[in-house]
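We now fix the convention by which a protein and its fold are recorded. The integers have meaning only within a learned vocabulary of local backbone shapes. The record below shows the convention in full.
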Amino acid sequence: MIVDERLTTYINSLGSSNTKILDTIEKEALQSFVPIIRKEMQSFLKLLLQIKKPKRILEVGTAVGFSTILMAEYNPVECEIVTIENYEKRIPIAQKNFERAKKEEQITLLEGDATEILKELDGEFDLIFMDAAKGQYINFMPDVLRLLSKDGILVSDNVLQDGDIIESHYMIDRRNRTIYKRMREYLYELTHNEKLVTSIMPIGDGITVTTFKD
């Protein structure tokens, strides 16, 4: 935990419940050990949707569609959501969940490698939510910034790796070293790019919120 677990539990206890379909999908995902965004991240996204009211949203990393549906449910304006998923076993589950939530006409699910799909996308997005393979964020970055509207917001989830991002190279499991190295590069680029303003926040597993400078 990045933040004290008792404090996080207390904060989450103050939050309101989600819609019935989201509660059902969340329960199913947890029972199947499918990672979904944490409670505190859910609350943050709801707040951001109310403030930004994005008409066009891009999500990189669909999983079973929980966060996709949450954004569709809690955005106060009608919006189009494009979401990308590469894991074949989760794609039909996500599609079924979109139908269960009656959001299938609002959501476009693109199947395949986000690195390639992002290059083919055009137009601008008011909100981009990154929640895919953590070691690929740095590779997604050029196209994600190309697709972000001038006053758009980029939110990247799971950037602090439960706090392990600050550990020594030799304290990290060998299998995770490349992922952590690339994530540090991503965080550096977001915070040192002269065209961007970025805040790193200890919400959930760590997030960044980025927008272009005026």
User: Anything to note?
Assistant: The CA atoms of residues 20 and 157 lie 24 Å apart.
